[in-house]
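Bumping with the actual sequence this time:
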Amino acid sequence: MRDDDFGPLEPSPQAWLDWTSAKQALASDPQRSAWVSANAGSGKTHVLTQRVIRLLLSGCRPSAILCLTYTKAAASEMSNRVFERLAEWVTLDDEALDDRIAAIEGQRPDLLKRQEARRLFARALETPGGLKIQTIHAFCEALLHQFPLEANVA
């Protein structure tokens, strides 16, 4: 955080939370390029989950999304968060779903976006190859299996 973000006064805890939320919203915007680096427990998985959901809401195909993590636990946690959120959207009433989408995107959805949001869970599950959330090692292993000759691997 820069000193000029808050002026000469010591920021309140709420100001810190608001600043963090604003930065997380910027990092989760699918129209931006972002590099997320932060301490453990600071919200990286939250930001990346939000970004995946915003990509899906913007019309990105689930098969076009690849999320790489260092550990199986992180991949599992991220996958669980995305699918739990999308599964919840199927059963929410319109007002509650509109609130959830507005919290993510900063504006209330129109009817078409709401209908698409309700279909995202099924699309993510039914897409061949699906939403790929995996470790870097699993991704590299899959590449080697697909292209053994090119990689000069028996």
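The tokens above came from a reply further down the thread. The chain has a mean pLDDT of 88.
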